[in-house]
Amino acid sequence: MIQIHIEPMDTLFFRDHRPFNAGEETTAEFNFPSPLTFFGAIGSAVLDGTKGAELRKFVRGIGGYEHPKLGKYDPDLKNTGMKLKGPFLHREGEVFFPPPANLWISILGKKPSTYYTSLPYETDWEWDIKRENQNLRPLKMPTKSGMKPLDEYISAKVLTQYLSNSLPPTIPVKSEEEFFAKEDRYGHALSRDSLTVEEGYLYTATHLRFKDELGKRKYIKTGFTLIAEGIDETDLPDKMISLGGERRRAMISVSRGDKLVPEQLEVLNTIKSTKKFFIYLATPAIFRNGWYRDFPSEFDGAVMVGAAVKKPMYISGWKVSGDSFRGKPRPIKRAVPAGSIYFFEAESWNDKRFETLYKKYHFKESLSDEYPSAGFGIGLIGSWNNDRR
Predict the structure, then answer these.
(1) Is residue 371 included in any domain, yes or no?
(2) Quick check: 389 pLDDT over 50?
């Protein structure tokens, strides 16, 4: 496996799922890019860098054609030669993850900030939920004033502390503004016939300018990091990709390894002892049953007792289609956002069951029902219990 680090050469443009045509809608809203965007960009770069690769045969599957690294073309992105994990933001060589949905933080003090974690507790609350969700318990909310759900990013180091239920009294966080600035850009649509400005076709789009800067002793770079399986550095010879709307250019660099978040033996041992674990979604996941999914067979016997799930995000994208290869939009899917948490108890499990689960799903295989190869549904496993610190 390799790590792919992406640094934009100019602004980048990512928009939300809603259809946008200049003259009909005047604003293309910003949306944090989904894994589909990066899978398409990196896959295209691999195709362009492969000598003798036949795009038409690959996309159409003519004669059972298989790319030497990407394998057969799979529009559902379930059985592909290349698999990704990400994207994650990086700055100064450090990777940052989306905020856990059950983590609250003080708005009264200065950084680093004090925090509160919401966990499943027995309460007297009653709520109207479906019968199959009857084991879910409301999460305990903070009683102190001046607390808000965390919406800043946390480093890989802080995330490992969170997973082991050993956060220090205060934690450092980074806001989006510390990674990039948003810039509104204005433009006119052009006539396809005359290539002149179309009257009444003014539009606005939000671009991201990543904050690279010269520090005291080094140049500080900001961008995205992904983990890629099935390809290596030689498959990306140009060191450039086209990314997002308007196919903006970005530089890439490659390093070895996949340990953005290491395995934590102490977490696994705690889970074995308490019979309790949670899944933190590091990337969005698309489940057949909405936010409440039918987890794989490895979860059989484990009872979901709580969840902290953010508002759904909507995922679309493009796939190549037809002779023109211009592509067509994918159907819109509703996804559980990154940072969402699912709490489980598994009283009947032995140590082997916990070990199997941890080795398979701790920053490894996807939990998503849709587009798993693109990087959706990458989870990390942590420990929890009801004993408040």
Answers:
(1) no
(2) no
The count of structural domains within the chain is 1
Here the CATH number for the domain that contains residue 228 is 3.30.70
Q: Are 158 and 98 in contact (CB under 8 A)?
A: no
Confidence at residue 209, expressed as pLDDT on a 0 to 100 scale? 87
Q: Note the pTM of the prediction, 2 decimals.
A: 0.87
Q: What is the mean pLDDT of residues 215-242?
A: 86
Q: Are 38 and 231 in contact (CB under 8 A)?
A: no
- pLDDT per residue over 361-378, tens digit each? 999 999 999 999 999 999
pLDDT tens-place string over residues 280-337: 999 999 998 888 777 888 999 999 999 999 899 888 877 766 554 566 778 889 999 9
- Do residues 299 and 357 touch, judged by C-beta distance below 8 A? yes
| pLDDT for 53 beyond 80 | no
Question: What's the chain look like in SS3?
Answer: CEEEEEEECCCEECECCCCCCCCCCCEECECCCCHHHHHHHHHHHHHHCCCCCCHHHHHHCHHHCCECCCECCCCCCCCCCCEEEEEEEEECCEEEECCCCCEEEECCCCCCEEEEECCECCCCCCCCCCHHHCCCCCECCCCCCCEEECCCEEEHHHHHHHHCCCCCCEECCECHHHCEEEEEEEEEEECCCCCCEEEEEEEEEEEEEECCEECCCCEECEEEEEEEECCCHHHCCCCEEEECHHHEEEEEEEEECCCCCCCCHHHHHHHHHHCEEEEEECCCECCCCCCCCCCCHHHCCCEEEEEECCCCEEECCEECCCCCCCCEECCCEEEECCCCEEEEECCCCCHHHHHHHHHHHCCCCECCCCCHHHCCCEEEEECCCCCCC
Q: What is the mean pLDDT of the chain?
A: 83
Residues whose CB is less than 8 angstroms from the CB of residue 154 and which lie 6 or more positions away in sequence, other chains included: 96, 97, 99, 100, 162, 171, 172, 173, 174
Asked if residue 107 is part of any domain, the answer here is: no
Domain limits for position 183: 2-92+177-256
Asked if the structure places residue 325 within a domain, the reply is no
pLDDT at 250 over 80: yes
The pLDDT confidence band at residue 228, using thresholds 50, 70 and 90, is very high
